[in-house]
Amino acid sequence: MANVQYYDVILKPVVTEKSMNAMGEKKYTFLVHPEANKTMIKEAVEKMFPGTKVERVNTMNMDGKNKRRGMTFGKTAKTKKAIVKLTEDSKDIEVFAGL
């Protein structure tokens, strides 16, 4: 496994209608490093966003989509997605505040 630091774990937030609705339940969705595990994701969220406490982390591996350009076929890159549930007494994550 590569040497993954906490600032390399979270790549970007996922902004979809479903993820925005889940924010009411203090669930936040991120694209994460493919080799990151649940404990690494939990530590990264708590270090990057001060005042947050993670209750649980759910992860899923997303396969690349099939794409075609003319006669050639290919696939997009595989990704890993994490849904982070914060505790009730935790602060909200500020990244999603303006959306």
Structure description:
- This protein has 99 residues and is an alpha+beta fold.
- It has helices at residues 6-9, 17-22, 38-48, and strands at residues 10-13, 27-32, 54-62, 66-69, 72-75, 79-86.
- The N and C termini lie far apart (35 Å).
- The chain is built from three helices and six strands, in the order H-E-H-E-H-E-E-E-E.
- It has a single domain (6-88), classed as RRM (RNA recognition motif) domain (Alpha-Beta Plaits).
Q: What is the count of distinct domains?
A: 1
For the record, the CATH class is Alpha Beta
> Span between N and C termini?
35 Å
Shape: globular
- Total strand count, please? 6
Describe the strand arrangement of the main beta sheet, using strand numbers.
1-2-6-3
At the fourth level of CATH, the homologous superfamily is: RRM (RNA recognition motif) domain
Enumerate how many helices there are, as a single number: 3
Structural class comes to alpha+beta
**Which whole number gives the mean pLDDT?**
91
The proportion of strand residues reads 35-45%
**Rg from Cα:** 15 Å
* Helix-residue proportion: 10-25%
Largest sheet at a glance? Answer: 4 strands, antiparallel
Secondary-structure element pattern, one letter each: HEHEHEEEE
CATH architecture: 2-Layer Sandwich
Kindly report the CATH topology. Answer: Alpha-Beta Plaits
Low-confidence stretches: none
SSE inventory with pairings:
Blueprint: H1 6-9, E1 10-13, H2 17-22, E2 27-32, H3 38-48, E3 54-62, E4 66-69, E5 72-75, E6 79-86
Antiparallel strand pairs: 1-2, 2-6, 3-6, 4-5
Q: Which tags fit this structure?
A:
four-stranded antiparallel β-sheet
